[in-house]
Amino acid sequence: MEFENILLETKENISFITINRPKQLNALNIKTIQELLTSC
């Protein structure tokens, strides 16, 4: 699944979530929080 504000990577049964909003200094907004909830 593609996300706009986060990167999701899985290695050896471990998922890594990276917030990817460099222009906003990776600040959380409603869209990013929704993506985090969806990625779980």
Q: What would you say this structure looks like, in words?
A:
The protein is α+β, with helices and mostly antiparallel strands. It has one domain. The chain is built from 1 helix and 2 strands, in the order E-E-H. The protein has one helix at residues 30-39, and strands spanning 6-11, 14-19. The protein has a two-stranded antiparallel sheet with strand order 1-2. The termini are close together. The mean pLDDT is 95.
Brief summary:
This protein has one helix at about 30-40, and strands at about 5-10, 15-20. The protein is an alpha+beta fold and about 40 residues long. It has one domain.
Query: Which runs of at least 5 residues are low in confidence (pLDDT < 50)?
Result: none
Tally the structural domains.
1
Overall strand count: 2
The N- and C-terminal alpha carbons lie at a distance of 12 Å
Structural class: alpha+beta
Into which percentage range does the β-strand content fall?
A: 25-35%
Question: What is the secondary structure topology, with strand pairs?
Answer:
Elements: E1 6-11, E2 14-19, H1 30-39
Antiparallel strand pairs: 1-2
Features:
40 residues; alpha+beta
